[in-house]
Amino acid sequence: MSETPPGLLASVADLHEMELARAGGADIVDLKQPAFGALGAWSTEALTAAVMLWNAWGTQMPAHARPALSATAGDQPMVPALMRAAAERVATTGVPIVKLGLFASEHAGECVEALAPLAARTRLIGVMFADEGPDFGLIGTLGRAGFAGVMIDTADKKSGSLTEHLDPLTLSQFVSEARRHGLITGLAGSLRIDDIPGLIGVGADYLGFRGALCAGGRSGTLDPLRLGQVSARLRAPSDLPRP
Ligand SMILES: O=C[C@H](O)COP(=O)(O)O
């Protein structure tokens, strides 16, 4: 179990939201276009502009205060060449962390293996889906391919939240298995502020949010007030696991 509360991953849809997420205390600013799916991707031009902004932050604040930057590669079919091309497109813009959806498929393992050369140059995060019966056997494949981390999210945002699909014990097993393979971990999937206390004990490195941060649902606009509430709840000492 982590001794510190999980970090906050905030998914953002444009550069303005990127600034709001930084100001609101996100530990990872995650470039995602929610209107295009669970892991909807930004355009190449927009990603390039985001990297420029992130680089500018690096000149304005100490390194420890600058959030990490990730981006999703889109809801791709589980075809190794297509996955690799999608990941390369994002990585080429200079985004340092690329998130890749591992949808339920007998080809998921091949897709992960095809990404090993890129994983040697860029931090890759595999995203499994709680509403698709995730195969934890894939975690070892991710570790061997050199991925930096693994997350669980939900693919169908109408299917219920992460906590409706997987119980805390199963999520703890996911975190333990990922740690055993040297992977950082994240949990997401229509999480609400009230899910936070129950998930802190699971011990994941990050909790990811989009819908709970927005006015008008996940395809709406990021609301600084909601972001502040989620950030404060994550850091509330009363939610820390007791020794
Ligand atoms: O990576 C985190 C996600 O963007 C979570 O989105 P959601 O809270 O709308 O399911």
TrEMBL record:
<dbReference type="Pfam" id="PF04476">
    <property type="entry name" value="4HFCP_synth"/>
</dbReference>
<feature type="active site" description="Schiff-base intermediate with substrate">
    <location>
        <position position="32"/>
    </location>
</feature>
<keyword id="KW-0704">Schiff base</keyword>
<dbReference type="GO" id="GO:0016829">
    <property type="term" value="F:lyase activity"/>
</dbReference>
<feature type="active site" description="Proton acceptor">
    <location>
        <position position="99"/>
    </location>
</feature>
<dbReference type="InterPro" id="IPR007565">
    <property type="entry name" value="4HFCP_synth"/>
</dbReference>
<protein>
    <recommendedName>
        <fullName>(5-formylfuran-3-yl)methyl phosphate synthase</fullName>
        <ecNumber>4.2.3.153</ecNumber>
    </recommendedName>
</protein>
<comment type="function">
    <text>Catalyzes the formation of 4-(hydroxymethyl)-2-furancarboxaldehyde phosphate (4-HFC-P) from two molecules of glyceraldehyde-3-P (GA-3-P).</text>
</comment>
<keyword id="KW-0456">Lyase</keyword>
